[in-house]
Amino acid sequence: MNQKGLLMVISGPSGTGKGTLVKHLLKRNNRIQLSVSATTRNPRPGEVDGVNYFFLKEAEFKEKLAQDEFLEHAEVYGNYYGTPKAFVEDQLNKGQSVLLEIDIVGALQIREKFEEVVFLFVIPPSLKELQRRIKTRGTETQEQMAKRMDSALEEIKELKQYDYVILNDQIHKATRLIESIVEAELASVKRSQSYWLDLFGVGR
Amino acid sequence: MNQKGLLMVISGPSGTGKGTLVKHLLKRNNRIQLSVSATTRNPRPGEVDGVNYFFLKEAEFKEKLAQDEFLEHAEVYGNYYGTPKAFVEDQLNKGQSVLLEIDIVGALQIREKFEEVVFLFVIPPSLKELQRRIKTRGTETQEQMAKRMDSALEEIKELKQYDYVILNDQIHKATRLIESIVEAELASVKRSQSYWLDLFGVGR
Questions:
Q1: 3-state DSSP helix/strand/coil percent for chain B, to nearest 5?
Q2: Residue A54 in contact with residue A37, Cβ under 8 Å?
Q3: H or E element: which one contains A137?
Q4: How far apart are the C-alpha atoms of B52 and B48, rounded to whole Å?
Q5: B12-51 pLDDT per residue, tens
Q6: How much helix, strand and coil, in percent to the nearest 5, is found in chain A?
Q7: CA–CA gap between residue B157 and residue A45 (Å, rounded)
Q8: A123 contacts in B (CB within 8 Å)?
Q9: Interchain pair A159, B193: CB under 8 A
Q10: Max CA-CA distance within chain B?
Q11: Class of domain B7-199
């Protein structure tokens, strides 16, 4: 069955271990890969074009933007960032599932353009654990930590807009849950029915 | 997280190996169990009340039916069969997932009463393999086999009404897919959001 891959967005407040989880998942599963973003910022030492980012001049970025070539985009401190549609669609057509690590604002932009996207929200096991993880960063003042905690809780409210909650308590369990979601979604009737009805010649 | 189990209906044409798949799944996974049906037919030697079936007198069955105590029911050759609501709900509340092996007619009755049910449709890997499996039963005439084939294809059309397609090519893969679906569904935002929002005290 030569099925398209799954496009997934993964978000979650800082302090949930989302970055480590994504790294672990990509290492373990070669059917899932991270999307490569385009950016107008300068490459940092060691960054490779087409691997870490697609590095674009501002004029190029804006032209692509005008031609609706990004799934989502944002401007941060005067630099543009965007998810190139063509790259994502190529991978999906090859049967690769693609993960985008973006925030809720970008995520909602994508949902508008790409109905079939699956939204994952990474969550810490408890309020206490979230506090502990924010504290152990250790480089911030009391006030900064309180602010970070507030903004994490604000983000958690948004989980209502997502499809799945990934409890990141044990990294192996969380990784396995994401793999299960990919497997389940690809077997969903909405994604696979035309394939099956054709295979058995019973029409749509 | 003391979460309710998942209620699943599993259907599929004969010749898909559905029965063997269900047995394998139940053996491997003690968080999933088969529902016990009620029936008015007489127990066969070795059948145990409350294990194989709940054996009821016809008057008892009809009284329960009048009180809406079945999730679905059917009459087959003068005997009644039904899925007792109370049994299923007890198990779900204990966190056990419950599997009902019923046909599309019963399945649709359940969907009306129990929105959160998940529908699984078991499918053979190909038309050819379906033919082969129907043939190897070996006890039927050409005509009977053709009829069985037609009715299998009619059933496959109904997969549009289900949620997931379970390709039963390799039993281990099919079993694992059902387990993945249970895991994914239990992590879905629609089933778990109130738990998480409460846990982090961010209201609903």
A1: 45, 20, 30
A2: yes
A3: none
A4: 6
A5: 887 788 889 999 999 999 999 999 999 999 999 999 999 8
A6: 45, 20, 30
A7: 57
A8: 196
A9: yes
A10: 66
A11: alpha beta
Tokens of B189: 């935002």
pLDDT in tens, A5-50: 999 999 988 778 888 999 999 999 999 999 999 999 999 999 999 9
Which element (helix H / strand E) includes B96?
none
For residue B42, give both structure tokens: 């007489």
Residue type, B128: K
Residue B37, φ and ψ in degrees, nearest 5: -85, 160
Helices and strands, number each (H, E), in chain B: 8, 9
d(CA B17, CA B136): 12
Q: Which two tokens stand for residue A195?
A: 């394939």
**What ipTM was predicted for this assembly?**
0.89
User: Nearest-CA neighbor of A21 among A98, A124, A96?
Assistant: A124
Of A160, A181, A187, the CB nearest to B193: A160
- Give me the long-range contacts of B107-116 (CB less than 8 A, separation at least 24): B107/B9, B107/B11, B107/B72, B107/B161, B107/B162, B108/B161, B109/B71, B109/B72, B109/B73, B110/B7, B110/B9, B110/B71, B110/B72, B110/B83, B113/B71, B113/B72, B113/B85, B114/B7, B114/B71, B116/B6, B116/B7, B116/B191
Burial A30-53 (b: 16+ CB within 10 A, else e): eebeebbbbbbeeeeeeeeeeeeb
Which amino acid is it at A137? R
From the list B165, B179, B197, the residue facing A192 with the nearest CB is B165
Q: What is the CATH number of domain A7-35+97-199?
A: 3.40.50.300
Contacts of B183 in chain A (CB under 8 A): 176-177, 180-181, 184
Phi-psi region of A50 (alpha: psi -120 to 50; beta: other; left: phi over 0): left
Contacts of B188 in chain A (CB under 8 A): 163-165
Listed in sequence order, the DSSP H helices in chain A are: 18-28, 58-66, 85-93, 104-113, 127-135, 142-157, 171-186, 189-199
Query: Three-class SS string for B101-160?
Result: ECCHHHHHHHHHHCCCCEEEEEECCCHHHHHHHHHCCCCCCHHHHHHHHHHHHHHHHHHH
Q: How would residue B78 be classed by pLDDT, with cut points 50, 70 and 90?
A: very high
